[in-house]
Design a protein that fits this description.
The complex is a heterodimer of chains A (226) and B (431). Chain A is mainly α. Helices cover 81% and strands 1% of the residues of chain A. The termini of chain A are far apart. In chain B, strand 1 and strand 2 form a beta hairpin. The chains are: A mainly alpha (226), B mainly alpha (431).
C-alpha cells in the first residue's frame, strides 16, 4: 500500500548522529588516561592493548563520520547550516585522530615519561580530556536546542558551557608552559631524540584541548546564524 | 432524457458503487496524513489511531462534509450548459469518480503520494472540457480552486510557524518548561476544539437538518451568536478533558535535564491525540466531498427527471455512504499504511507534530467552511515546512517535497485523461 507522502518529508535527524559521534570521540580519548598510567608503570603490554582499543574506537568514529556525511544530501532543509554542521563534524573527528596519533607515537618509540615530569604530565592529560568532555557535553545539548528552536535560554546554557571550555583550555596552556619549562631543566640528562619527541607529545596532548575548544567555537558559529 | 428515465436506477447504483469505491480509496490512501504523525511520534498506538480515525473521519464527513460537496458538485462545471444534455453530465460524473478512484488505486499500489482532491477535480475538468466542450467548465471557479492549492499550504505554514513559536516562547524557552506545559497545553486544546466545533456548527449541522440546539435550559440559534457560544462550550469541555489526562500523567522525577524535556513531550503527547482527532475530522470533512460530490450530482439529476436544479438538498444516504466508505478503507488498509509509518519516522516529537497538525487541521477546516476543495496533503506539507522554518524539525527532505509536488501536478492530466476515456466508453454503452 501507499508509502506515504508526508512522512518521507522527514529526513533523518543529523543532530543525533553528531551527538553519538562526539560521545564516541570522548570515549576514545578517555582511554589516554589509563594508557599513560600504564606507560608510567613501564607496562608496555597493557599500553599496547589500550592503544589497540583507541585505534578501534577511532576507526568507529571515522565510520560514523562517513555515515553522517552520506546522510546529509544537498536537498535537506535544516534549522542549522549544513556547511557548519559538516565543519563541526570534521573538528570532532580530529580529536579522535589526535588521540590515536599520541598513543601510536608513544608505543612506536617506547617513549618513557621522565619521573620528574610524571605527576604534572598526568594532571595535564586529565585536564585536556576534561576539555573534550566539556565539548561533548555542549554538543549533547543539540537535542534540547532543537526543542527550543535554537533560541533563548537553551542557547545561553550552551554559551556558558563553551565559555567553561575556553577556561579549561587556558588551564591546559598554563600546564603546558610549566611542563616545557621543567623538561628544559632536565633535558640534558635525556636522549636528545627522546627529548624532541617528548616536546612533540606535549604539543599533541595540548592539541586535544585546542581541538575541543575549536569544536566549541564551531558550535558557537552554528548557533550564531540566526 | 429517455436514457435517464429508462436506466435511471441502474445509473444511480453504478454511481453509488463507484462513489463508495472512491471513498474507500480516500480512506486507504490518506489515513496516514491524518494519523501518521501521531503514530510516528508514539503518541498513539496503531490500534488507537485506527479507531480514532474511524470515529472522527466519519464524524467529519457526516457533520461537516456538506459544504465542499456542493462545490465539487456545482462549482467546477457550469451546469447551464448541460440543461439539454443532462445524461452527459451523469456519465461524466460517474466517469470522473471511476477515473479518480482508479488513479488512486494505481498510485497507492505504486506508492506514490497523490492528492485525492486533485484527482477528482482533474477528472471532472477532463470529461467536461474535452468530452463535452471547454465552455462547460467554470474556468473562473477552477482558477480559484487551483489558486487555493497554492495559498492553503502557505496559510497553514504560517499558522504552524506561529503556533510552534508560541509554544517555544510559552513553554520551552522558560525556567520551568514542564510546569508551563501543564499550564498552557490545555489552551492549545481549547483552540483545536473551538475551531473544529465552530465549523461543524456553522457549516455542517445545517446539512443534516439541525437549525438550533435546545438544551432545555437554553436554546442555541446556530446561525447567530449561539453558534459561537456553543463552540466555546465544546472547546472548554475538550480542554478540561485534556487537563484531566495531563494531571494523570506520570513523570520521571529525575533532575536530569534530558528527562526534563522528555516529560514536556509527554504533556504534548496528550495534545497530539487531540490534534490527531482534529486532523481526522478535518480530513473527513474535506475529502469525503471528493467521493460524494459527483455522486450527489448524479442522484439529484436522476431524481429530478433530468432537470439540473440549482439548489437541491443532499439526499440523506449520501453523506453516510461516503463516511462509511472512508471508514472501510481505513479498516482494511489503514493499519498497514500506518504500520509502515510508525517504523518510518521517529524524528517527529509530539511538540513539533502538534504544531503541524493543528495548523493543517485549522486550515482545512476553515477552507472547508468556505467550500473550497483543498488538498489535505498539501496543507500538511505546508504546515511541516512552516515548523521547519521555525527551526523546529531537525531535517526536512526537500527532494521528497519536490517529488510530492510533482505527483500533484501529474495527477491533474492523468485524472483528466482517464476520465475522458471512461466517459466515452460509458456514452457508447448507454446510447
Amino acid at each position: 500500500m501507499a508509502s506515504n507522502s508526508i512522512l518521507g518529508v522527514f529526513a533523518k535527524s543529523p543532530l543525533k548522529p553528531l551527538e553519538k559521534h562526539i560521545r564516541k570521540v570522548s570515549k576514545c580519548s578517555n582511554h589516554l588516561v589509563p594508557f599513560f598510567a600504564a606507560v608510567v608503570e613501564n607496562d608496555w603490554s597493557t599500553a599496547g592493548k589500550i592503544r589497540t582499543k583507541i585505534s578501534k574506537l577511532e576507526h568507529e568514529c571515522d565510520e560514523l563520520k562517513r555515515q553522517l556525511r552520506l546522510e546529509l544530501p544537498g536537498g535537506l532543509f535544516m534549522p542549522v547550516d549544513r556547511a557548519d554542521l559538516l565543519e563541526l563534524l570534521t573538528q570532532q573527528d580530529k580529536i579522535a585522530n589526535k588521540a590515536k596519533d599520541i598513543a601510536g607515537r608513544i608505543i612506536g618509540r617506547k617513549l618513557v615519561i621522565p619521573a620528574e615530569l610524571q605527576q604534572e604530565f598526568t594532571e595535564y592529560v586529565v585536564r585536556c580530556i576534561d576539555a573534550i568532555e566539556k565539548a561533548a557535553e555542549a554538543i549533547n545539548e543539540l537535542d534540547s536546542l532543537l526543542e527550543t528552536g535554537f533560541r533563548g535560554r537553551e542557547v545561553e546554557i550552551v554559551e556558558k558551557m563553551i565559555h567553561q571550555l575556553d577556561e579549561i583550555e587556558d588551564d591546559t596552556d598554563l600546564l603546558q608552559i610549566s611542563i616545557r619549562k621543567n623538561l628544559l631543566a632536565i633535558e640534558d640528562s635525556l636522549k636528545p631524540v627522546d627529548v624532541m619527541f617528548l616536546y612533540q607529545i606535549i604539543e599533541w596532548v595540548g592539541d586535544l584541548a585546542d581541538l575541543a575548544e575549536r569544536v566549541g567555537a564551531r558550535l558557537e558559529i552554528l548557533l550564531a546564524r540566526k | 432524457m429517455d436514457i435517464l428515465a429508462s436506466h435511471g436506477s441502474i445509473l444511480v447504483m453504478i454511481a453509488a458503487v463507484v462513489g463508495f469505491f472512491m471513498a474507500w480509496g480516500i480512506g486507504a490512501n490518506d489515513v496516514a496524513n491524518a494519523m501518521g504523525t501521531s503514530v510516528g511520534s508514539k503518541a498513539l498506538t496503531i490500534k488507537q489511531a485506527i479507531i480514532i480515525a474511524m470515529v472522527f473521519e466519519f464524524a467529519g464527513a457526516y457533520l461537516a462534509g456538506g459544504e465542499v460537496t456542493s462545490t465539487i458538485r456545482k462549482g467546477i462545471i457550469d451546469p447551464s450548459y448541460f440543461t439539454a444534455i443532462p445524461e452527459q453530465l451523469v456519465f461524466g460524473m460517474i466517469a470522473a469518480l471511476l477515473a479518480a478512484a482508479t488513479w488512486l488505486l494505481i498510485a497507492s499500489i505504486l506508492g506514490w503520494p497523490v492528492s485525492t482532491t486533485h484527482s477528482i477535480v482533474g477528472a471532472i475538468i477532463g470529461f467536461a472540457a474535452i468530452g463535452v466542450s471547454p465552455d462547460t467548465v467554470a474556468w473562473g471557479k477552477v482558477l480559484g480552486i487551483v489558486g487555493s492549492w497554492i495559498i492553503t499550504p502557505l496559510i497553514s505554514g504560517v499558522i504552524a510557524f506561529i503556533i510552534f513559536n508560541s509554544a517555544q516562547k510559552l513553554i520551552f524557552d522558560t525556567e520551568k518548561p514542564l510546569d508551563n506545559a501543564k499550564r498552557y497545553v490545555p489552551f492549545y486544546m481549547f483552540l483545536a476544539g473551538f475551531v473544529l466545533s465552530l465549523v461543524t456548527i456553522k457549516k455542517g449541522l445545517k446539512h443534516i437538518g439541525l437549525d438550533n440546539i435546545d438544551l432545555g435550559i437554553v436554546s442555541f440559534e446556530l446561525d447567530g451568536a449561539g453558534g459561537y457560544y456553543l463552540a466555546v462550550i465544546v472547546a472548554v469541555i475538550v480542554a478540561l478533558i485534556g487537563k484531566f489526562f495531563i494531571t494523570r500523567l506520570r513523570f520521571e522525577q529525575d533532575a536530569d535535564k534530558s528527562a526534563h524535556y522528555a516529560n514536556v513531550e509527554k504533556v504534548f503527547a496528550t495534545l497530539m491525540v487531540v490534534t490527531a482527532c482534529c486532523m481526522a475530522f478535518a480530513h473527513g470533512s474535506n475529502d469525503v466531498a471528493n467521493a460524494i460530490g459527483p455522486l450527489a450530482a448524479v442522484v439529484s439529476i436522476i431524481d429530478n427527471g433530468g432537470e439540473i436544479v440549482k439548489k437541491s438538498p443532499l439526499v440523506w444516504w449520501i453523506l453516510p455512504l461516503g463516511g462509511l466508505g472512508i471508514v472501510a478503507g481505513l479498516a482494511i488498509f489503514g493499519h498497514r499504511v500506518i504500520a509502515t509509518i510508525g517504523k518510518g519516522i521517529t524524528h517527529l516529537t509530539p511538540s513539533r507534530g502538534f504544531a503541524a497538525e493543528l495548523a493543517a487541521a485549522c486550515t482545512v477546516v476553515i477552507a472547508s467552511g468556505a467550500g473550497l476543495p483543498i488538498s489535505t496533503t498539501q496543507t500538511l506539507v505546508g504546515a511541516v515546512l512552516g515548523v521547519g522554518m521555525a527551526r523546529g524539525i531537525a531535517a526536512i527532505n526537500l527532494s521528497v517535497v519536490r517529488n510530492i509536488v510533482v505527483s500533484w501536478v501529474i495527477t491533474l492530466p492523468v485524472g483528466a485523461g482517464l476520465s475522458i476515456l471512461i466517459f466515452w466508453t460509458l456514452r457508447s454503452i448507454f446510447t
